[in-house]
Amino acid sequence: MSMVRRSLPVLLLAAASCSPAPEVPADLILLGGTVWTGVPGAPPAQAVALKAGFIQAVGTDREVRALRGPGTEVVRLQGRMVLPGFIDSHTHFIDGGFQLSSVDLRDADSPEEFARRITEFARTVPPGTWITGGDWDHERWGGELPSRKWIDEGTPNHPVLVTRLDQHMALANSLALEMAGVTGSTRVPFGGAMVRDPETGEPTGILRNEAMGLVTRVIPEPSEEALDGALDAAVQHALSNGVTQTHNMGTWEHLETFRRARADGRLKVRVYAAVPMETWEGLRDFVAEEGTGDDRLWWGGLKGFVDGSLGSTTAWFYEPYADDPGTSGLVTTDTASLRSWIQGGDAAGLQIIIHAIGDRANDWLLDVFQDAAERNGPRDRRFRIEHAQHLSQAAIPRFAAQGVIASMQPYHAIDDGRWAEKRIGPDRIKTTYAFRSLLDAGATLAFGSDWTVAPMDVLEGIYGAVTRRTLDGAHPGGWVPEEKITLEETLTAYTLGAAFSGFMEEKVGRIQPGRYADLVVLSRDLFLTDPVDIPSVKVEMTIVEGAIVYRNEG
Ligand SMILES: [Zn+2]
């Protein structure tokens, strides 16, 4: 009978976790807390023992205390909560590391403040230095796009290319445009757009998507030293957020930076490093020669784009934008090329990880995935759609049916939720960040931040998925509240679901004997916390492979 079969693994697990082996003392034990193991139906535990980088036991204080030896380090949790380490399944990790030391425009909430911060930052760096990053958001001051005129006076000697937080458009100052040779008559590349002054036809400095390349191509490449510094800063930032593993949506240069850090023992988080989709043949050959790495740093994934973003009005929809009826978004990669790369990369056994935001982009991608799977035959391929932000009703069941992972970022829901209805109207918002519908249809959710597009703050993300309260406070009961999910479902998406999306679900993502000891300790039990207060919960300690790599000393 199915009941009996189902209960058997639970009994085995209980037996394993209760069998103390006093002759093998633990390296580290955590006592007196609440342990969320991530194992459905498992009894609540109080304590965890770690040995040689792995979880040795999880159970009651009495059971775990029995593993204490003379050399065992003891951490007293005093009611704090232990969870599997958070996995951020979508970051631009090294870009984020650079952003930590660049001008911060994320919460600049007026044109004056935007200009003031850039001007002040320019005073702190030598003339001629490029000012990049920024992560501005024009929705903070009502939606007017910034212009180079706002910042030219304060930056006569610094070329500037500051990006919107979604990285899908940027503002260049006049010096940067001049250095790049961009004028009103410059031809804009496919997949991009340039905003021009309606009277003079001159560029305002706003470049969308592929048009950013007109300027980025003249920005000097960062040195290895600078890349290493950015990575180290990003690692510290991740650990302070309880993140023990991340999936980097980046470049070959990033992969080489991770490999240097891995070789030097500086890579204190686990990293799955994806490289650009169009380089799939390069990755196929690299894997044939070098393999796919190890459990600390691995590769084998290809990241591509179908479309742009909602915030930049470049996400690809069937219907026009409500606030810009002249456009329904754009395709940022030539679809024939993207289709052939996906088929090629999939045939080569690589994982395909594609950004799709608009409903039309998602449907197009699901079709291409289906086609590739049929042509290349069955295998454990784990196609991923990154963001899966606006879905047609028909798309929702296809994720489960086709085995496509929805890699989503709940912070985006409470951020974009402030103004999404203005952009796409009242109907399309109903299937925006459709967490509940996707789970109910049987899909796997993998959660992440999209840092540096959004903060790498997992507790904000948990809050976002559970409450759907937008950042502006305008939806106290939740924005599209039908799509809220439970705390347990949210935590699963940040642990086991995210691990699955990177082929690590057997090794991390739950607190079970034999898995890697990647753990996070929070200041409070989330299950006893009012969801509204989740953002105030602190990360107290982060453990990767049994080593305490972060402690909150604050
Ligand atoms: Zn991204």
Write the layout of secondary structure elements.
Blueprint: H1 2-17, E1 28-31, E2 34-35, E3 47-51, E4 54-59, H2 61-65, E5 73-76, E6 81-84, E7 86-91, H3 93-99, H4 111-123, E8 131-136, H5 148-151, E9 160-164, E10 169-172, H6 174-180, E11 192-196, E12 203-209, H7 213-216, H8 224-240, E13 243-249, H9 252-264, E14 270-276, H10 280-290, E15 297-305, H11 335-347, E16 351-356, H12 359-376, E17 384-387, H13 396-402, E18 405-408, H14 410-416, H15 420-428, H16 435-440, E19 445-447, H17 458-467, H18 487-494, H19 496-501, E20 519-522, E21 539-544, E22 547-551
Parallel strand pairs: 1-5, 2-6, 7-13, 8-9, 13-14, 14-15, 15-16, 16-17, 17-18, 18-19
Antiparallel strand pairs: 1-3, 3-4, 6-20, 9-10, 10-12, 11-12, 20-21, 21-22
Residues 90, 92, 249, 450, 453 line the site of zinc ion (ZN).
Describe the structure.
The chain is α/β, with parallel strands linked by helices and 554 residues long. It is 33% helix and 20% strand. It has 19 helices and 22 strands. A hairpin with a 2-residue loop joins strand 21 and strand 22. The longest helix has 18 residues. The N and C termini lie far apart (54 Å). The structure holds zinc ion. Zinc ion binds next to loops. The site of zinc ion has 5 residues, from loops.
Low-confidence stretches: 1-22
Helix/strand-derived category reads: alpha/beta
Query: Mean pLDDT across all residues, rounded?
Result: 94
Report the β-strand fraction as a percent range. Answer: 15-25%
Radius of gyration: 24 Å
N/C terminus separation: 54 Å
How many runs of DSSP E, i.e. beta strands?
22
Largest sheet: 8 strands, parallel
Q: With helices defined by DSSP (H or I, 4 residues minimum), what is the helix count?
A: 19
User: Order of strands side by side in the largest beta sheet?
Assistant: 7-13-14-15-16-17-18-19
Name the ligand types. Answer: zinc ion
